[in-house]
Amino acid sequence: MRLTCPICGARDRREFYYQGDAVALDRPAPGAGVQAWDDYVHLRDNPAGPRRELWHHEAGCGAWLVVERNTTTHEVHGVTLAMAVAEARR
Amino acid sequence: MKFSGLRVLKEGLTGNVGWTPHWRDPEPKPEYDVLIIGGGGHGLSTAYYLAKNHGMTNVAVLEKGYIGGGNIGRNTTIVRANYFLPGNSEFYSHSLKLWEGLEEDLNYNVMHSQRGIINLFHSDGQRDAFVRRGNAMVNQGDDAILLDREGVRAHLPYLDFENTRFPIYGGLYHPRGGTARHDAVAWGYARGADMRGVDLLQNCEVTGIDIENGTVRGVQTTRGAIRAKKVGIVVAGRSSQVAAMAGMRLPIESHVLQAFVTEGLKPCIDHVVTFGMGHFYISQSDKGGLVFGGDLDFYASYASRGNLPTAEHVMEAGMTLMPMIGKAKLLRSWGGIMDMTPDGSPIIDKTDTEGLFIDCGWCYGGFKAVPASGYAFAHLMATGQLHETAAAFRLDRFRTGRGILDEEGTGSQHNLH
């Protein structure tokens, strides 16, 4: 499995750290309540198929990446900078 | 059909024509008292103990593929009771006791082999941690012996004791640990459940769960609708998909765990051995293949296969520990789908839907738990009460933060176990 980092290009999976579901970009407000925080920290859709994930190019440029990947085939459909995703929401 | 030495002799002398199928292939009935979704090890043992311990025989097991085709046939067959935390410790202790009586109970040879497990340690800190774990095991009533370097050498003379980077300081020896023939465990429980009247419905995929006013009424399947008063979800790596049919999101992420087997060799590894400085554990099957594995690939996956980096790491760790296996040819590798929870411990509990129960989150340790998981889940489904050995495996522990079972002490968060 290889990921194409928008900054560094196509790199081996070994260079990347897998953080988890891209839900990590949707941090609730501190006072959002127990259910919102449970949804954020613990509960997962865990789909068998396309999914958005957060990866860290830890042995490369250090960027956080949003990776669209299929969990049943390991196909990677797209990699974008997490910073760009976050800024587009502002 | 009862198995015995006499029967084997008789069949051997009369052309082996008297053996019959181990279980029936029944048509689904329109209604059962209990439905178990998932015909793997845990589902089959649940059905078996519902019938045996609670007299509930109007039960069906719904399996989307065939019996024994999932993780019960894709693991590294290790059976042990070397857990540390209260909550886990008594559960796995109970499971090992069930294993020790399983063949007689099932009248089935599951090839349970208590060959002993040796967890190696390679530093003073690791030694202290294993002393603590060993004491917890002894306090639970199980067995643990601390071996020094020479003690390890007496058992495992083939290890690389000259390795300067990862010196072997000793090992924690768990003599009652060992292995079992994984397929036979599924077949034995399936046969035992079937003999007591449980219907095993294969090629029967659940496509929906019927819920009315917060109470479960039955399920939709590829072989038609089936009504039931109680439904248990026991589907391991696919837990999130089945739970979603009941409107639930689970604290689970499915990951791939790889395992490997070599060509058959003459007996050389008598125990289960784990390396303490890399992800590698190994045993030898009765056919002679070296069966070994490591850690997760560490990304979500339903692919039932992994990638090269983890395979390489496992081989490198194996070669570091026991260079003698270097010329063995790798025969096969495979991956299982692990239902990982944030704290690395399982869930056996009711759900918010009346009559709907769930047994999941076995992470990479489900095989040894098959007897006690079925035992406790059957108890919960039959009586509505948590079994005393599995009272800590609550579904809501992540939300409340109460009773987190973080055996590795790394934190309760996805991707840490």
From TrEMBL, chain A:
Quote the InterPro entries the UniProt record gives: SoxD, SoxD_sf
Q: What is this protein called?
A: Sarcosine oxidase subunit delta
TrEMBL record, chain B:
The residue ranges of the Rhodanese domain are 34-78
Q: Which cofactor does it need?
A: FAD; FMN
Keywords of this protein's UniProt record, alphabetized?
Cytoplasm, FAD, Flavoprotein, FMN, Nucleotide-binding, Oxidoreductase
Q: What is its EC number?
A: 1.5.3.24
- Kindly give the InterPro entries that the UniProt entry links to this protein: FAD-dep_OxRdtase (IPR006076), FAD/NAD-bd_sf (IPR036188), Rhodanese-like_dom (IPR001763), SoxB (IPR006278)
Which family, according to UniProt?
Belongs to the SoxB family.
The name under which this protein is listed is: Sarcosine oxidase subunit beta
* Organism this protein belongs to: Roseobacter sinensis
| Organism lineage string | Bacteria, Pseudomonadati, Pseudomonadota, Alphaproteobacteria, Rhodobacterales
